[in-house]
Amino acid sequence: MCRHLGWLGRPRSLAELILEPPGGLLVQSYAPRRQQHGLLNADGWGAGFFDGAVPRRWRSASPLWGDASFASVAPALSSHCVVAAVRSATVGMPIEASAAAPFTDGNWLLSHNGVVNTAVLPTCSGAESVCDSAILAASVFERGVGSLGELVAEIGAADPQARLNILAANGSRLLATTWGDTLSMLHSADGVLLASEPYDDDPRWVDIPDRHLVDAHDGEVSVTALEVIR
Q1: Is 124 a catalytic residue?
Q2: From the UniProt record, which GO molecular function terms apply (predicted)?
């Protein structure tokens, strides 16, 4: 149910991160290698990046592979911090640009790879869409992204079927959770790349264990287990 990536490091173009890798999000939109739920990610896509401290977004309800306008502009758009995703909509959820990640509160960009029963989510306002991911994003923003790990554990306890892989970035910090789906990390001298699955065969990719929180900032990365609430 979706594939996403997050980058924090030296400025890189959106084309370099999303379109050009042999197994990047463009390819993952029609031929993901590690996706366990769904075969395609054709229900929209989004690319968010930071222009200084300001988050910018380009989102669509159409498949990424058919967007010639983005393909023509992506090489000219670069940023030190990027969050992007391709979407496979949960059954019954709307297919619209506002339902495509990344979501934002004006400070953070957030993507959700998974599914959640919205009935267990905290009451909140400001969701960009009625889809589960948008309501989850609004819940995270209202609680505070700094409490992401705790909130994911709470929601996971309330909905045992939930898959809660989340990526969030504010331009200087990149956070991610694994809860029911895959996530890999490539940490180099240039920065930190987190992705639902590796986009190439670089041997430096490492898989993040399930139910863990990744926190990258100031050139450092920590990976800690999420406490399971019983």
Answers
A1: no
A2: hydrolase activity, acting on carbon-nitrogen (but not peptide) bonds, in linear amides
